[in-house]
TrEMBL record:
UniProt keyword annotation of Signal present: yes
Protein name as annotated: DUF4595 domain-containing protein
Domain of life: Bacteria
Cleavable signal peptide: 1-20
The keyword Signal is annotated on this UniProt entry: yes
Record's keyword terms, sorted: Signal
């Protein structure tokens, strides 16, 4: 089972591009951290951080893939996500319903697969196409490129991932619609509940080569996020603390951002 605990993000304002951090999210959601010894029925998550708390319920199938996810109606807002998979465990459908005092928004995604990769079509509640993404994978089925287009086939943004399996690092470059580099994310491919010296890797990065590709060099920061887990008797994680630091390559300084804690109450199938 793959476990991911450290995320480094090269942060830059990304102008509300829908393509932001897609590959990073795909990696973090690829598997359930820590293989439990007993089949899970559902999980109740409790988040706390930035002075806020929220509760979320997640249901899994026997392959530890998310089938549904919903939150409590915090501050009059609620959402529910449902997913469907094919016979070989590939995601084929995803629907999202979010409700607030301003009304209800419904979106629907359809995934089609081929030997070249996958294509995602997103629709609104009226069945109107709103965006399309193409996803390429390597031989280990990790995403190597995601390109997102609007309904008129104009490119919104692109992500490109390069995997170093020997050093357990993936480097994700994010580009806007003009193919301008707007962010670089670094994360470990397979990780454990231990600290990884990513700062050594960051200090070796060729920042001077990236400078002319960026829209505003002074806005770049490296976000270093470390996740620490506590496990239950079934080897499933019951609490996770996220600690984040930001490193500025131009100033050579770091600053602490926040700590978030997620507590899981796990309900096992009998």
């Amino acid at each position: 089972m793959r476990i991911r605990s450290i995320i480094l993000v090269f942060v830059l304002a990304f102008s509300a591009t829908a393509n932001a951090q897609i590959i990073s999210d795909m990696l973090s959601e690829a598997t359930l951290e820590f293989t439990p010894k007993q089949e899970i029925d559902y999980v109740q998550l409790e988040f706390s951080g930035h002075g806020k708390q929220s509760v979320r319920k997640i249901t899994y199938n026997r392959n530890l893939q998310v089938v549904s996810e919903e939150n409590a109606a915090d501050a009059g807002q609620a959402f529910k996500i449902t997913r469907e998979y094919d016979s070989i465990n590939r995601l084929v459908k995803e629907s999202t319903r979010s409700s607030s005092l301003h009304g209800t928004v419904f979106t629907y995604k359809k995934f089609s697969w081929s030997t070249a990769g996958a294509e995602t079509l997103e629709y609104d509640k009226n069945g109107k196409l709103t965006s399309k993404s193409t996803i390429a994978y390597d031989s280990l089925m990790n995403p190597t490129e995601v390109v997102t287009f609007d309904a008129n086939e104009a490119m919104i943004g692109r992500e490109e991932a390069k995997y170093d399996y020997g050093d357990n690092i993936v480097e994700i470059h994010i580009y806007n619609h003009d193919e301008k580099l707007v962010g670089i994310h670094l994360t470990n491919i397979y990780s454990k509940n231990t600290k990884i010296p990513f700062m050594d890797y960051v200090r070796r990065m060729p920042f001077e080569e990236y400078r002319p590709l960026c829209t505003n060099w002074k806005q770049f920061e490296v976000a270093i996020s470390e996740r620490k887990y506590k496990l239950d008797k079934n080897n499933a994680w019951k609490s996770r603390t996220l600690e984040k630091l930001f490193y500025s390559p131009e100033a050579g300084t770091t600053r602490k951002n926040f700590n978030d804690t997620t507590v899981r109450k796990i309900f096992y199938k009998k």
